[in-house]
Design a protein that fits this description.
The protein is mainly β. The chain is built from one helix and 19 strands.
Length: about 240
């Protein structure tokens, strides 16, 4: 991922580390409290300094704890997959890709929205949906054959402004909950994937990154102004 979030462990230096070494970019404040009409996705936001994660919705010792803010400085957000009284099953921003866990509803606030992102790797195409209509389409770059973009269901975990400090990542970068399946230690990062812009538009439409998805700067700026955090990202072949 030469694009800014490509695969980083994120402290954003960590976050974008798989793309390139750099100083941490500035986090962009995001609202997680507005409930949109017709929303279909729920996002849980940590209200304290950590969220306990359980293997099942029972009051047994937790299997792990996720801190907030995260290492990259952004507030912890989790995409809700299922709800039971007092509990949420959430997609976790951890390895292995697709891992889930249960959290107590009392440790988070929940908001809903109706955005989703679909990335078709073979077509080098990214589509953003708002409800049942297309909000935006863009030609993107994806991972090279040696460092492919991981496939699966992920979500956006943060948003960082990079225009002034890391212009090679374009104006913004979204870290994702997914990780490279071939890069586990890259230039100070842990291989976290992301969606970001680029200072090389000629790379768009090609398979040349270390795993991140690169968009045009214009399209990415539009997303940064409209999307909440916790947007599902489906990456498929």
């Amino acid at each position: 991922m030469n694009g800014r979030l490509a695969l980083g462990a994120f402290g954003v230096a960590l976050l974008l580390a798989a793309c390139r070494s750099t100083a941490p970019p500035a986090a962009v404040p995001q609202s997680t409290t507005t409930v949109l009409s017709g929303a279909v996705y729920a996002v849980a936001t940590a209200t304290g300094s950590s969220v306990a994660v359980f293997d099942a919705p029972t009051d047994v010792p937790s299997s792990r704890s996720l801190r907030s803010p995260q290492p990259d400085g952004s507030t912890l957000v989790l995409l809700v997959e299922e709800q039971r009284p007092g509990w949420f099953k959430v997609l976790l921003p951890l390895r292995p890709n697709g891992v889930t866990g249960w959290i107590r509803a009392s440790e988070v606030s929940v908001a809903t929205h109706d955005y989703r992102i679909d990335v078709q790797v073979s077509a080098h195409k990214l589509t953003v949906w708002k409800g049942d209509r297309v909000f935006l389409e863009d030609t993107v770059s994806v991972g090279s054959p040696a460092t492919p973009t991981a496939l699966g269901r992920f979500y956006t975990t943060g948003l960082f402004e990079t225009a002034r400090t890391q212009p090679f990542y374009g104006p913004y970068a979204y870290p994702l909950s997914g990780w490279s399946e071939v890069l586990f230690d890259f230039d100070g990062g842990e291989g976290q994937m992301g969606i970001h812009g680029t200072d090389d538009p000629s790379s768009l439409g090609r398979s040349v990154s270390n795993g991140c998805v690169r968009m045009s700067n214009e399209a990415l700026t539009r997303l940064a102004k409209a999307l909440p955090l916790g947007v599902p990202v489906e990456i498929r072949a």
